[in-house]
Design goal:
47% helix; 79 residues; 2 helices; two-stranded antiparallel sheet; 10% strand; single chain; mainly alpha; elongated
Length: 79
């Protein structure tokens, strides 16, 4: 049987780093998910999915599509 005293600080640091990296990966995956309700281990998160979709549209096209775009450039008059 292995005792806690058999581990050194570098091994403990590696273990903590791997566990925290896995936790961050799970949080990022749930953040990018388009599910409106996410549940794990008794914890349930309900989110506004339309906000995620609007943000992605804004990043891809420059506008979210909520408001009509006005073309402020007037055509030049013919001579």
């Amino acid at each position: 049987m292995t005792k806690l005293s058999d581990f050194n600080l570098s091994e403990l640091g590696i273990f903590i780093g791997v566990c925290s990296s896995a936790l961050v990966a799970i949080v990022l995956a749930s953040q990018k998910s388009k599910c409106s309700k996410i549940g794990c281990c008794g914890c349930v998160i309900e989110r506004d999915v339309s906000a995620v979709i609007k943000e992605e549209k804004l990043q891809m096209t420059g506008h979210s599509g909520d408001t009509p775009r006005l073309d402020l450039n007037e055509p030049e008059a013919e001579k």
